[in-house]
Structures are given as C-alpha cells and as structure tokens.
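the two lines:
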Amino acid sequence: MLSGNLLNGIILGAVYGLMTMGLSLIFGVLKVVNVGHGAFIMLGAYVAYWMFTLFGLAPILSVPIGLILGMALGFLFFYLVMKRLLDAPELSTLLATFAIGIFLEEIAKVVWGPDFRGYSWDVGTLHLPIATIPMAKIYALLSSIAIAIALYLWFKKTRAGTALRCLVEDKEGARVCGINVTGFYALSFALGLGFTVLSGVLLTLFIPVGISPYMGGIYTLKAFVIAVLGGLASPWGAFFGGFIFGLVENGSYSLLGLIPNVEPFSLTQFVAFMVLLVILLVKPEGLLGEK
Amino acid sequence: MIFQKYSSFLLALIVFAVLFAIGMVSPSMWQPIALIMFYIAMGQAFNIFMGMTGYVNFGYVAFLAIGSYGMALGVSRFYQTGIGLWLLFVGFALAIVMAAILSLLVGGIALRLRGAYFAIATIGVNEGLKYLIEGGKFWGGSEGIIISKPMRATFGRHLANSLSTFWADVFLFIIALLAAYLTFRFMHSRVGYALTAVREDEDAAKVMGVNATKYKLIAFIVSSCVAGLIGATTWCLKSTYVFPEDVFEISYTVEAIVIVMLGGSGTLLGPIIGGLIYGICKYWLAVLLPGLQLLILAPLIILIIVAFPGGIVGVIRERIRGTVLDQVIV
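prediction for all of em together
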C-alpha cells in the first residue's frame, strides 16, 4: 500500500518538477518571483480540458498548445508590464505578478464559471506487482522527463542557451558581449510561463475533477516549496525537488491517514507549508542548492 | 512646527470624525460607512508593515482570520463564566494574543529572509492555517464557530443585536484611530527611522548598526495585532460566525494591497484616502458589476505600480513640493 503510494508520488513528482521549472527559470534569470504562478497552471488545466471536451484531443497532444499559449502570454505580460519594472524595487514585481495571477483567475471564472470541472482520458492501466497505474499517468511521467531533458539540452548545447547562462552569470558582462539582454529576459519569462502552462496540461491527468479557476493557489504554494527544496534559481534542482516533494506528499498522506479523527488531505497541504518554513529556516539556499 | 508634525494625524482625525458624524446623522449611511471604515482600517494595518518595510505580507488575511477566531473562541468558550461585558474584553485580548503568537512564529522565521524569500514564506500562511484548522478538525474544523447563541445568552437579545449592528462598527472606528496613532508614532520614532533606513537600503542600514530584523519584526507584530482586532470585530462580532472558507479568502489581501498602493504606501494618509476611495468604488461596483470586482482591481494594481508607484499621496506630494502645503502632508 505504502510502496504503491510512493510510486504514485514519484510519478506525480515528475509533473511537480516540471511545474516548478518555469518558476525557477524566471527567478534565475530575471530575479522575479512569479507569485501568480498557480494561475498559469490553472490555464494549462483548462487548455487540456477544452481541447479534450471540444475536439477530443488527447491531453498529451495539448502539451504544445499549452507551451505556445504560455509563451504568448509571457511575451505579452513581459512587454506590457514586467519590462517597465525590472529596475523598480522588488515589491513592484511581486505585486505585479500577484495581480496578473488574480486577473487570469477572474478571466477564467468569467469564461468557464466557478465550478469544478474535469474529464477522464482512459487509455488502459499498467499492472505492476505493487500497484496498478493508469497509462495516462505513465505518459505524463515520460513526457515530463522528455520535456525536462529537452530544456536541459537547449540550455547547455545551443547558442541561445549559452547566451542565457552568460546573462545569469553577469548581466553587464553579457551586455558588453553583445547579448540582447532585454530580448533574453523576454524569452526567459515567456519560456518560464510556457513550461508552467504546459505542466498544467499534464497535471490534469492526476486530478480527475479538480479543474477550477481557483485551483492554482495550492499549486503556487507547492511550487514554492519545491523551488526552495531545489534551490530557488535552479530549474534542474526544481525538477529533482519535484520528485522529493511527490514522495513526501504521498508518504505523509499515507501516514496522516493513520491518525484517527483528522482529514489527511487537508493536513497534507499543511505539511507542505511546514516543510517550506523549515527549509527556509534551516537552509534558505535550498537542500540541493549550492552556496 | 508642532502643527507640522501633527498635521497629517489631525487630517486623519477629521476624516474619521466626518465619517462618524455622517453615520450618526443618517442611519441608512451607517453600513456603507462601516464598510469604508473596514477598508481604511485594513489598509492602515497592512501599511504599518508594508509601507514601513517595503515587504509584502501575502498571508495578511490569515491575521484577520486568527483574530476573528480569537473573538469566537473567547465568546463561545467563556460565556458560561458569567463575566458579562468583560467577555468582549476576553475576546479582543485573545484576538491580539493569537495574532501576536502567529506573527511571532511566521515573522520570526520569515523575517530572517530577504525580499523574495519573505514573500514565498508568507504566501502559504493563510492556506497552511486554513488547511490545519480544516484537516485537524479543531476550532469547529470546516464548520466554523457560530457565536450568536452564546452572545444572546450573555448579553440578552437586544444588546447582542446592537453589539453586532452598531457597536462592532464603533469598535472599528476605535481600531482605525489606534492604527492611525500607531502609524503616526512609528513614523516619528526610532523604529520608524530605522525602518525607513532599512526600506531604502537594507545593507547600508545594517552597516550603520541598525538591527533590521528586530525592527521589521516589531512592525510585523504590530501590523498583525491590529489586523487581528479588525478581524475580531468585523468578521466575528459583526457577523456572529467564523467560517474558515470565508475568513481565509485571499481577496482581502488583494484589497489591502490595492488600498495601500492606491493611496500611497508608507504614508499616514495614504491608506485612509485609498480606503475611502476603494470603499466607495467597491460599494458602487458591487451594485453595478456584481462579481467582477477582482477582474477590475487586478489591472488597477498593475496600472498603479507601473504608472504611479507613489499612489495618490505620492502624486499630491509631487504637485505641492515647495509650497506652503509641503509640510502638511507627510
């Protein structure tokens, strides 16, 4: 029972990791904390929901649509808002991303209504000795890993990725070398949001009826926990942090279920918050972060 | 000189007195004015921390919520002791103590962290606490606490009624006054000067020997305690119940941010002007476009941040720089 649960935790953890990579990318490059992170996950969930219910498109095939939508929104919000705030106090970008998140949630409420929605994509199950796992989740796991590897290769092997790494190391130096700093800021912001919306698409495979305009809040919290676990500015740390968090979450759910008279689901969310505070207290640079 | 120092505070007093007088003269205006006062008080309490330190407490609503739980627990657990009106005192005291404990726990951890990390640490406070109460099934769990019965049993039907329809709002005026006074005292004290230095340049302030964390913690606790009092009176005493889904609603944090940014953060009059305008607009929008307030507010926040980071008070200050009025508005 517990080992099956932990296996589920690892699979969900891959999506959690992907979900947090965008947050870490934006923080790593722009030094902006996207407080409205969860709203973009919510958008991805609705992309998957709409594509599936309206056109019968398999959620895995909605992944590029999520990426494109997220990147388009990323460029839009960057040039409309974030570009003007890059030199402003940190307070401004925090409030601006917070407001963007609220704005998206309210738009979603107008478009899709406040109720919970969901769909089920049935493509068979995989029978393992310790657990039975729907194939949909296996696809989610595989595509998460593939996407993370693709981002990694882009970051390490291409010219653009190298330029971006230069920019993270030394902004002024990069500018002197002729790197278009603002352009790369825009690209990072767009890519970060693209990956976030994309992860929302995959997340719907784990929450059968959990799609609502306000679903994002708890994922913002989870993404922060994971980001801090992996070292806030490192997308790779975030990806591995996702696995750890998936394990901790499912493990603590099983353990909390043993306590009589409590609601393990709600308490698991509380545990996430406590993990966050403890890590921030003990090792703010992240468990996997280097200092 | 004395006049210059107190001028902003006097202006605040005049605003409160005018609002109170309007409410007294015309009973139909009492509820709208109570709503405006709620926003003014909430903005002021938020401003004590955000305006002074430049840090955003994204878990702000949790402190109003814990205050309303303080009052609810005070009334529902102690009403059989027969202490009469002292019960309210117990409720308010519990609200302050519980808000202070929560702020000490959260602030003690989060305020060691700079900027972005602080925001991350506070963003989970209200969700975390809500899930703890619902999941742990204490304090009524997800069913909340209803205090109308103990209120009636202690105070009688008539007094219990007027407590929630009239006195709760009067308490709000007193709390707003207290918040204005605390802001004023802070701005003209060692704490205020230290915090201004920290806000402008934290590293420089530390080099000068300012204990940044200590002063930030003071502002955080004071802001949270005032928030707790607001929650105790408006959310518990006035509505006579506390439901976790209602009191941990994140939109109140958004509203506090809007009020402070609109009026001008870090100023005494900012949250009062912001709360006044916001309260009137909200009342009007709720009639005109019900359910769409947040959709309009969110772009408003972005617009203010991009175009007028100093808020209304900031714009006025720019205009009157160098004139006689320069010293009046601080």
